[in-house]
Design a protein that fits this description.
Udp N-acetylglucosamine O-acyltransferase, Domain 2; 11-stranded mixed beta sheet; 25 strands
Amino acid sequence: MSVHSSSVVAPGAVVPASCTVGPFCTIGPEVVLGEGCTLVSHVVLDGRTRMGARNIIHPFAALGVSPQDLKYKGEPTELEIGDENDIRECVTISRGTTEGCGVTRLGSNNLLMAYAHVGHDCLVGSHCILANSATLAGHVTIEDFATVGAFCPVHQFCTVGKYAFIGGGTIVTQDVLPFSLTSSKRENKAFGMNRVGLRRRGFSPERLQTLQKAFRYLLAAKLNTTQAVEKIKELEGEDAALIAAFVENSKRGVIK
């Protein structure tokens, strides 16, 4: 095990021999690291934090710290992190609360850029990007392959759908449609599907065509939301069904 002499690893912490712990890191007694993790320097891991393999944590990140919630009174809650995440400088991730689901979860293969914040009880999927200073309030869900742009605050209990792209500086107070491109120029709007991002993810022309029809019904046709969802249900494929189900299950309403 490579642990710098200036770092503090508490008794009880599990740090495999394949991990590298750089200078001035602090690892709490209930932390469990997976194989091949790297803590570059000045990293704080606290609480009941469980981390998978081959994660890279950059300087001044603080993971598993107590939630920024006045109702929290030190209850035993958790942070779970998957594999191969790249967590950049000054990122903060709070553990869960008993009033939430008791755990904050981050999937695998995510990039969290500098100063991003993941609040208590958030559920972040895999292959997501949180750009610089993207901030998730408590109880936020970010589904797989979603991108939250720089300086975007996401309100409590909002959901960002799969493959969605949120432009920088957008204040998110409602659910963000899957596959959508959402941004705030003058006001928050969904401008259609995330065509460039979906192409980069290997979506076929047929899938893109179906999604284009779904977004036309929802955003451009002279239909109310209920009528648009019924038209989307008539389209073939899982993508259209996912959009319809997302709209029907939304509790905060969707950005259109």
